[in-house]
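Form 7-S
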Amino acid sequence: MRDLVIKNATIVDGTGSPAMRGDVVVDDGKILEVSAAGSGPTQARRVIDAGGDLLTPGFVDIHTHYDGQVCWDKQVTPSCWHGVTSVVMGNCGVGFAPVRPGTESKLVELMESVEDIPGTALHEGIPWGWESFQEYLDCIDTPYAVDVGAQVPHVAVRHYVMGDRCYDDATPRDMARMRSLTRAALEAGALGFSTSRFYGHMDKAGNLVPGTRAGAEEMRTIGSAFEGLGFGTMEFVSDHLDDPEELAWVEHITRTTGCTVTPLTTAGFGPLWDLAEKLHGEGFSLRPQVGARPASILMTLDGTINPMRQFPAYREIHELPLSQRKTALKNPEFRRRVLAEDPILPRNADAVRFITDYDQMYVMDAALSYEPGPQDTVAAVAQAGGIDPREVMMDTLAEGVPLLVLFGRYDGDLEGQRLAIEHPQSVFGLSDGGAHCGVLVDASVPTYMLSYFTRDRQRGPRMPLEFVVHKLTQDSASVYGLKDRGVIAPGYKADFNLIDYGALKLHQPEMVYDLPAGGKRLVQKAEGYLMTINAGEVTFENGEATGAMPGRLLRGAKARPRAPTSA
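Output:
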């Protein structure tokens, strides 16, 4: 008697091969058999008749920030609501290990500043008690609804080694110590190492986070920790991907260690992509990481960036309940005051641009396409209606509709993103699950990719369903050496999504206050997921959690497997 049989499914197997109608047999958490529909066994401990609905591998999200959240949320929401069965966290250089006892608040403050995760939630929700990265892994080695892998973060390593000097240049001794700690973390089970070289990642005092200006020697030294391991991935975000010196150390690490390097990038090709193609031709792996859409933010009344806060009249009511603030935005006298007031602008130039540039601020469409046209800008809507752009802002926010700002190379459509995603060397990522709690809901991008880019898109070519599933599964899993998943074939891990493809749909983003200490986050749910299955166990059915926790901590290929402790 086998554990599970899924019959009569439209199987998109993760390899990019054409869909087929078939049956799948699962036993002991692995796929035992895949055959034509009607030819599989009819008895098992559980038999699911798919009725022709879409069956995919579970999605693999390689760019998340659940490093603290996994301590209190064993479902790992919201990624699990969107068909994700494996996540990789510890991206962009921030995380919570290693840490010297008594300095934990420093890492919380950095995570709060860089990733917009409420510090109060992190302080209350993280139990601490570890110092080394291995001790951190041991602490989070518990059952989950999804599988969880972690990377060792440069910011934490630098702070551990250099203390208050972590913003300064590293000495050779510092570099050697950072290399040693990174190697120990990889041997303990870290899937990789991450760092940030991005101008927008700053601490609360306005300083660039530790490691942002780390020189090539420091990067090469830390990168040498991968030598001889035969596994591991380096992830980073950088402002300098057109700089030959930056690409030189990237190429050096890729060639000398054999590890995969995945820098975050935007649409538009250049020297990084040329280098990726060259290295691929020589058997190395440099995988530019791209997302479903350009860098963006959602502005809402309860979000981190609320454009109404620039007006003195709104500041008088900003502590009122949301419903009362929405009512005020429709009040004629309140609106007259806002139209007459001089705004009080923030000091940050980017923030000023986000809240005042009406030609680059869009009213989110009902289809949540993230592909607005020029007619959708606040300025254009105002002109068409013969009203002030501030009135459009108030009308939109009063209805609970977000205002969208696309600030990462948006040329009027998403063709740049499509071309980047379709590039043979790119890898799909950048969901930022668990982070940017007040401005993003990009953990929903697997649902967006399936529903919009393969089915609903009108403003340009769609991508084949089989290709998108491949990018969400086998391809992304391979970047972190997770070669046991992402394909529906015998011997692979039995992670699946059973989807009513025609009904797959995103809900409107909503602010919830469900983090520890009442912390808030924007979330977005979906409909159309009939079942999500991890290791042969149904974890979600019709969008509801079953309570099953078959997920485990993923450790690097050289780490000794450990049995999960109790939650």
